[in-house]
Every structure is written in C-alpha cells, then in structure tokens.
Amino acid sequence: NREGFWGEYDFVYLPIDFATGIHHGFAFVNLTSGAAAVRFHYVFHRFSNWGIRTSKVSSSSWANDSHQGLAANVRRYRNSSLMHPLVPEDYKPITFVEGIAARFPRPTKTLLPPTAFLFVDSRGAG
Questions:
Q1: By C-alpha distance, which of 5, 25, 3 is closest to 15?
Q2: What distance in Å separates the CA atoms of residue 45 and residue 8, rounded to the nearest whole number?
Q3: What are the Cα distances from residue 32, in Å, to 12, 36, 44?
Q4: pTM for this model (two decimals)
C-alpha cells in the first residue's frame, strides 16, 4: 500500500512454512487491472526500499495464464487443504474488495488438513 497500490489488488497469498512459521520469501498477488499489473511489475521488480535495513531485492514475474485473475486463484485455493479450519488465518490466501479484506469463498467439498500441519502445532513447534 505504501507504494500506491491500495485497492488495486484483490488476492494476496504469502506462503508460510508450517514447521517454522516463516514465509518462503515470495507472494502471489493478483492486480485488478492490466495497467495496475504493469505498474506493480515496474515498481517491484528489483525493489529494495523495504523501510527496514536489509540487502534483499525483490523480483516480479507473471503467473501462468491458468493462474491469472481472481477467479483462477480462488479456484486454485478454495478446496485446498490450506483452507482447512485448523490452519491459522495468517497462513491462508486473502481476497480483497476495494482494498478491504473479504471473506474467502467457502470450500465446495470437505477439506483434509495439510499433511505437514498434522505434525506441527500452531506455534510452529514439531
């Protein structure tokens, strides 16, 4: 949001390791327009102004056609074990409507918990 994208994305997923509780260092972000996506790529490819002291530099790339768009991302995750009720909310993808977090569409089938999650409690201890 600090870079001017508030309200221009409708899906964000930051994958987190169940064993450590640490994110994997990448995210999936769906922008609401082609123009916003191009601008996002321009701003975040080789971005390094994180507001904290770090040498990390980001890169940006386009998803496969089958994974582009809000509908495709919802389809990909709504019946995923990642959406199981035992999985903490911070580990799950988020949808947005006009910049406000929205309820993720409910699964259409019964979900099993992620296999890795069965062996790790919510604090990340095995």
A1: 25
A2: 17
A3: 12, 7, 16
A4: 0.82
For the purposes of burial, counting CB atoms within 10 Å of the CB of 105, is it exposed (0-12), middle (13-18) or buried (19 or more)?
A: middle
Sign of CA dihedral 96, 101, 106, 107: positive
Using H for helix, E for strand and C for coil, what is the string for the chain? CCCCCCCCEEEEECCECCCCCCECCCCEEEECCHHHHHHHHHHHCCCCCCCCCCCCCCCCCCCCHHHCCHHHHHHHHCCCHHHCCCCCHHHCCEEEECCEEECCCCCCCCCCCCCHHHHCCCCCCC
Tens of pLDDT, residue by residue over 53-68, are: 888 888 888 887 778 8
